[in-house]
Amino acid sequence: MNTGGQKPRAGGGGLHRLAEPAPVEVGVDGAGSPEQVAGRKVIAIRESWLVEDRWWTSEPIRRHYWEVVDERGAVCVVFRQPGNRWLVHR
Amino acid sequence: MPNPTLPPYTELHAHSAYSFHDGTSLPDELVAAAVESGHGALALTDHDNLSGAMEFAQAAKGMGLRAIHGAEVTLDDGRHTTLLVESAQGWRNLCRIITIAHKDTRNGRPGAPAKPPRLSIHDLLSHAEGLVCLTGCADHGVHDEATARTLLEGFGPDHLRVEVQRPMHQGDRERNDALARLAARLGVPTVATGNVHSHDRTRVPLQDAFVAIALGRSLDACEPERRGNGSHALTTPDRMAQRFSEMPEAVAQSCELAERLRFDLTCDLGYRHPREGDGDAVRELAEVCGAAFDGRYGDSTPGLRQEAKARLEEELGVIDGLGLSGFFLLHRDMLELAREVAAEVRGPDTVRSVLPPGRGRGSSVSSIVCYLTGLSHIDPVAGKLCLGRFLNDDITSVPDIDLDFPRDIREKLIPRVHQRYGEDRTALVAMFPTYRARSAIRNLGAALGLPAAEIERVARSSEGWSGKSVGRDIETALGPGAAANPRWQWLVRLAGEAHGLPRHISQHPGGMIVATEPLIDCCPVIPSAMTGRRIVQWDKDSCADAGFLKIDLLGLGMLSAVERCVELISRTRGERVDLSRIPLDDPATFKAIRAAETTGVFQIESRAQMSSLLRTQPQTLDDITIQVAIVRPGPIQGGAVNPYIERRRRRLADPNAEIEYMHPSLEPVLKETLGTIIFQDQVLEVATAFAGFTAGEAEGLRRAMSRKRSSAAVEAHRERFIEGALRLNGADEELSSRVFEMIRGFSGFGFPKAHSAAFGLLAYQSTWLRVHHPAEFLCSLLDEQPMGFYPPDSLVHEAQRRGVTVLPVDINMSRVECTVEGGAVRLGFGRVKGVGKECAAAIVSARETEGLWANTADLAARSGAAGTSLQALAWSGACDSLSGSRRAALWDLGVTAMAEMGDAGTQLALPLAVESPVLPELGEWGRAMADYATTGVAIEGNPIRIIRPRLPRRAVRSADLPTIRHGSQTTLAGLVVARQRPSTAGGILFLLLEDETGTINAVVKPKVYEKHRLLIRSEPLLLIDGTLERPAAAGGGISILVKAVASLGHSLEGKATVRDLFEADQRERDASQPLAAADAPDDQEIVLQPLPRASSGRRGR
Questions:
Q1: NCBIfam families given for it (chain B) (predicted)?
Q2: Which one of B197, B719, B774, B982 is most buried, by most CB atoms within 10 A?
Q3: The pTM is what?
Q4: From CA B395, how far away is CA B698, in angstroms rounded?
Q5: Shortest Cα–Cα distance, A76 to chain B (Å)
């Protein structure tokens, strides 16, 4: 959703995106899979998947997702966008 | 331990474009990509069909890849299983499974789209032998244990595998873990597959667009159904092994299974010719020919008789040697069946009843066996027709026998063939309409969500062929900026990629396969869209590769028209015309042919043929045989046309004029065509006479030149040709190369002489009918539409110019079809759009039993016709005799409550007592537009006559052209009859325009065409300005070399494109504004502009 570049105020009503992905530092291995997310070691990759869509629009989507477990046992979903930009979902 | 030298993975699940909108690559593209990426084998598993299997097998064999065959079949509940062929029995079962899956796809109402194929588990399991079953794809596979156990019981543990895929979707791991557990419980291995839909990642967007097209939605509206990423593109075995790194046993299983699947379609099909090896067939065929010999040659000269006898013996020997006697007997049997059908269709007391049921065409006309068994009507010995193209000792595939039938006979014959030989033993050959420019623009444009009106504009401005030039189409229609828009750019790219990919299965015009063993053991057979017909899932090339015997039962409109014509002559004049006995040297007929007065006749009526006739001046039937063959891509590309015409004119001026040949050995074979290659069989004769090819080798060269899949194969013959020419004739390489190039130039489509002779005879017969019975001939042409080069409107105008009277549709005079009434042609109700055949027949029947219609109320009450049909009749002028005019008739119908069918019976029409107002008469233009909207024929003549006073003063009529000097600047207005831009003409477009005095040929060179392309492609009325050309060599033919084009239709508010019945009135009023031409210099575009109105009138309405 386009919020016009301004974050909606908490409790201010209106629509806003939940769990908006945030940029994150990710270290990768030789195959390009995450080894470290936000400075924490990845101990397991539960799944990875690809989303390549909306290529016919001015905003094509090309994301490689990984669902990983970090050294604390926390599960998070990170994805890589073109330009090697990494974001984290949760 | 896996062998490190072998690929670690084999792809066992791939779709080609024959999965129709669920696959984007042709089989040969998949094969090439598989070889390139290191695969040793590949399975093709299209959805519910084997249409691409033979093409795949041939391509794979040629490129050293092992082809594995299979299909992904859809079960009753919509789930899929992947079936792979292990043995010949497996192939037979797969063909039967797919045949069963399709058997109810066409049992809905006629014309409804096909239902999706569905298969019961029971039918699947009853045909399990020789097949390996995989449990199906990630989204639609069999994933429940109960069904999987049922499959296990049917296929057994050695022939069932649990299929695991990795489409790179969220949830893959969970699903595959569950499938691995299922496999363990069943005690069968898992096998990894890739569910390939594209041979390369570049086709991934096209796959998304195809899904949108298949669903009839836009890309934006079908996200859940699309594949979501590009992982369905074929990739390397290593990458696939890596993708399944957590399931190495499933990867290894793909290779183990592939090793077992050794069925080879190119040699294990098991098809046998009907009566192959039947010794009785040889004797029976000889007896049939012997019995017919005296009837055909009893009155011939001893020389011809002897020659025929020798030819028959030679042919019977070749046929016996090839084991084809049963093949000929089967065709004769089929002809006898056609004779029965023809007798039923024609009735016993008609002039048609004495005619043979059909006629031969194609190379089979050169066979004396075909002549004696009735499969051909041309004497090949008297006609000096060469057999080698049809039949020779070295033949590598079975010959084709083509038969033409009148449409009504063919329609009944095809289902009768199915009945006679068995539904499982007969089928029509398939064909696969492919994406071309217009279909790609419309379908892909809609998928991309582009504006519908703009898509249509681009589609109409396109030449309709190459999907690779859509960018230019967009620029032409929408301006140079449009193509820069990203979505239009995607359309350009996708249309280029889609070009040539099959869209759906369809039926070949007439190719019929007949087998003595069940055909459904060789290839699936499915119901056609046309009730009672069945089609095999292979096209003619695949059928030929399979060695199937094919007979072409073709419908020929002109054959129907001439039969209709002789019947009409008998009814109207009491004259019985036997076309087989008309004189073949009728002076009036040849005079018309030499003057190119051939509109409406068979084959020699087109613009190009007419201009050629003026130059070649045919004198005999043999000349017409050449004439029929000359305007074809083969002779044109081979550079034969101009040399032939130049030599022909030289010979006409001086019968002793010398003709030059490239080599003396070519003189005997090219003598009748004056040193040029006009006929396809001359390619064979040249190869034989000049390079010493055997008949089989020469036929191999010809086939290589004509087949779409083997353009490179021609080169393979070149070396052999040059060697042979040196050995046989001592020809040097330079000369041999020139002769080879002459042959290769012919590689486009050309006619064999036998075919030309058959068509030439029909061309002559139809011209004879045109000359001696013009009204009946026109009548027959109108009733057999669509056919031929000219639309009905042009046929009528041309006949009117020759003095044939054409009368309008009349509610009290017309019949369903057109009729001849006192020497004039009366249009029938069948010509009126919106009046169905049954409705028209009911109107005629009620009139004949209960009397003429007294008024429109009577018509509405008694006819039982729907209101819309009656309105269409009123607008066509059919009710003028009841109401006085079209508008009055519409008014009268409007105030009549129509008859209605109800449960309690028919509620009769009730005329309301409303006084009719005085309505203004429809003007000439309005009548013409109403005619176009209803009958498609402006019966009062070409509409240019009406607007003539408004045209620029310098605009001349076509009839004036003979008085204008060669090279003069000339302006003309005309209705576009035909636009042709043959690929052989270097980008030149030929326009045929018609005005009130005749037709005009206009030649538009590429530069002018590109400037005015949208106008030329889409406008019905044009004003052209150019140079008059009448070169001496044209034999009096005149054309205009166009410099500028302007639209008349646009300036006249588009009246000529009226499509809605009732909009013409308003357009007529709008167009009544006076027009004047802004005089423009000759090299500028001519512009017609409306003059300012004298009074404001209705402006701003």
A1: polc, PRK05672.1
A2: B197
A3: 0.81
A4: 10
A5: 14
